[in-house]
Amino acid sequence: MIYKDILKQQQPILYQILLQSFQNQKIPHAFLLVGKNASLPAHFIAKSLICEDDILACDQCNECRRIDEHNYGDFIYYNGQDGTIKKPQIEYIQDQFSKSALEGKAKIYLMENIENSTSEAMNSLLKMLEEPTAGIYAIFTCQNLNRVLPTIQSRCQVIQLLPSSQKMLREELKKEDISQDDVNILAELFTSYDECKEYIESESFEKLKEEVYHFIDDLYFHRDNLIINVQTHLLKEFSDKKNIQFFLNMLVLALRDLFHVKHSMNLTYPSFKSLYDRINDQEENIIQKIDLILNTEYLLSTNANVMLLMDSMMYRI
After folding, report:
1. Is 86 helix (H, G, I), strand (E, B) or coil?
2. What is the CATH number of domain 3-160?
């Protein structure tokens, strides 16, 4: 399913604004998308500005792919989540876009989480927006509109994104070529299709799912192998906190399934059913295991050492 169809269903207001703007060739020089999970819609706007195959981005042409990959010549991208946006970065945009266009089309700068900018950066940005140059487009996202200068807001087309429902998300995920397990996991752990997208085609997702199965199997039937297998497989391939946190959240869903088996409820991992049927654990013990994993996941978010935390969890679980 192409993204514009998903956008039309999940964000109908944004979709209609974009469609009318591009059809009538009255495109604002600056957009400000407000809400969580604004990255895909923001990139969709950028692609629509340079895509020649349709009114809105086709998501299939070379130009659209280059925007997604951040290697389009006249496209500059910053994300305040990666680090505070500062004045030199705004000056870099001004300098680069004062030159002739490399691609011969629109020049676009996309800044996510713009509220994480210094006051100097905000003021420099305001000056750019006060004197817009034809052919240069700004796309901003933020989660907290109150932290964006009102004078910047007034110079943008501000669009409030709608929150996604889990039911709608499940319906969208079912249209993808993924298993029921994957649909369940992604719908449980994320709130929008945007967040799920990076995992749908990810090899790491499949591998982490396999590691969850092996962890449960070792935990209950091969306890002596648990630590060595986690160290030589999971932690050897996935040492970054993001993937380990994702693994721990997936592991909690698998342990929660043990309750669901006891009470004949739907499973997050239906493919694990034969494994679950062999496990006989008291509900109190399962709760303790889940609490330990959730605490480990929390400690990871406080910049604790991944290896030490995982070792500690496995000795205690």
Report:
1. coil
2. 3.40.50.300
